[in-house]
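Researcher: Here's a chain I'd like modeled. Treat it as a single chain, no partners, no ligands.
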Amino acid sequence: MATQNPPVSQTRSFSTVFLIEMWERFGFYGMQVLMVTYMMKKLGFIDSKANLVWGAAAALIYATPAIGGWVGDKLIGTRRTMVTGAAVLTLGYSMLWIPSNNPTLLYCALGVIIVGNGFFKPNAGNLVRKIYEGDDVRIDSAFTIYYMAVNIGSMVSMTATPLIRNYVGERFGDAMGWHTAFGACAVGLLLGLINYSLMRRTLAHIGSPADEKPVKPALAFALLGASLAMVFIAAFILQSLLAAKICVYLAGLVILGIFVHLIRSSEKSERAGLIAALVLTVQTIFFFIFYAQMATSLNLFAQNNVNLSFDVFGVHLFNWIPEQYQNLNAIWIVILSPVLVLIYNSLGRLGKDPSVAFKFALGFGAVAVGFFMYGIGAMSAVAGQVSSWTMVWGYGFYSLGELLVSGLGLAMIARYVPARMGGFMMGGYYVAVGISQYLGSVVANLASMPENIKDPVESLNIYISLFNKLGFVGIACTVIAVVMLPLMNRLSRSHAEAHTPLPAVHSEEV
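Model: Modeled as a single isolated chain. Structure tokens:
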């Protein structure tokens, strides 16, 4: 456990989780960056269907960690569950490597990825929480660096997989290009597992009590059976958009009910923290509706209405593949994260670190500015195409907002939720994110292109209308977050008064 005297430093333990998470993100974002266009160009889906299928898959990918967190906390251990999830994800990406355009294979592969992510995601985050347990000052910085780290993996993969698709496709056929690019995601996860096996000693003292007990064969077989059932349930949901809609909205009611139950049944000293976590989780749902546009409307906008040439003062630098613009998100995360960490640490030493709720309000404001940037860029569009630099600055503000909201979402759970329900609540947080991923695909379909529209000038107006609406919604979210600041500050003070911070396990900086 994290409260024991560790045989290695916090930094080395953190680095082990950080690296396997980085490779997991390499696989996930390498797949995500291509998935919507793959469904449209290879499987013949119209844009609205591709958006909704991906939205349903993303919802399940983020929802299953609620189960995986419980499995890690109570059944087989946090470390074991994380590694199992990485192995299952490797299998899922390998299935996408198979050169077939059968939608059923795609649905089953996504089902395997959904299950693997459910095991992996909450337990990786919970290990970081356990490494820095009791250190409220540095936990925001730790999770921000963690967030930057995983974006290194996504940055590399979102650059590489479109290039692999084009390179292999030009030489060995279009179909081989798509599936080889997906295969690269599997190779990334395999490298992550090898790296973990070499560094696993650094996490030997971190985990849940179940990590210290042997896994009974009956339990292992039961988990295998439940996982296979979940794969087929997920595949069914993905091929039925009605089933997906029902499941997403039902999940929203369930997670809200669980939050209410935990708040009502918790000890008085825990209640303020749980209420604060609920309010911030609801705000997170709104943020991820914006975030979901990256793989859907912003991706299709780049396909249709962006000049792919990067030029400076009339000098051509290079061209990007449309899907690669999603990479701007990861690039900005890596650039901005150290700046925010420096600010957090400096303000923390002065005792003036802003509250998580205040950072959420700033984040929504940044997102609003980001979406308005596309409308500004459209004013100087040529033949219905905006400059590539419009995408750079739009993603820049959008990514700053992501760091302030999503980057601190996990830290919010770690700070406000009692340790005994940490894994489950990490999972509950991801369920909320999953709901908003599906809602985001519904929102993206407001810019669904009618079949008779082929002219970029016409499609530009449709996309910019959506982005401007999202900008105004971002402003509304900012105003609401600011209005709620006094309530959030009172809840935070009540929580702090009832919970004297434990001494840090180790004084070393991340």
